[in-house]
Design goal:
The protein has 3 helices and 9 strands. With about 160 residues, it is of the alpha+beta class.
């Protein structure tokens, strides 16, 4: 037969924890992940491009389609470019739709870079689309995107109100 004092203590501890969480507005991690809001990625891209069209092609975004942990996600971006003095990649921008800020990273390149390629690890808040945009020296913008499923999210903090 279970100890009634232990059962009562467990119940009171659980009830107290829930009451404090309710009063303070603290949410469990799984509730935050389910409600990770979309940031304003399309507006951030329009601001970057100043309304110029974003073409598809030339850019290859390489992400795993499924990751267990959103804290260390490998990301590779390469751009087809001769990287000459007159034709080169000026910058590669990485955007996400569910991280607290839409523009996750910017890599500035120049003709002396040799190759238009970057590789890094990033934190992703949730399952989402990631977009890589290359800004070329002629003023054009090229992009590629990938959908990524994250089973254990990172970046659980809320966006400012």
């Amino acid at each position: 037969m279970p100890n009634p004092q232990k059962t009562r203590r467990s119940f009171l501890a659980t009830a107290g924890t829930l009451a404090v969480a309710t009063l303070t507005g603290v949410k469990p991690a799984h509730a935050q992940m389910a409600r990770t809001p979309l940031n304003n990625m399309p507006e951030a891209i329009r601001t970057l491009t100043r309304g110029a069209p974003v073409n598809t092609g030339k850019v290859k975004l390489d992400l795993p389609p499924l990751v267990e942990n959103g804290h260390l996600v490998p990301l590779n971006v390469s751009v087809q470019s001769p990287m000459s003095e007159t034709d080169y990649v000026k910058a590669i921008h990485i955007f996400t739709e569910r991280n607290p800020l839409p523009e996750m990273a910017t890599f500035h390149l120049g003709p002396r870079a040799g190759r238009a390629q970057v590789a890094t690890r990033v934190r992703l808040a949730d399952t989402q689309n990631v977009v890589a945009i290359a800004e070329l020296s002629d003023g054009s913008f090229w992009s590629d995107s990938a959908h990524l499923i994250v089973t254990l999210a990172a970046c659980l903090e809320e966006l400012p109100a």
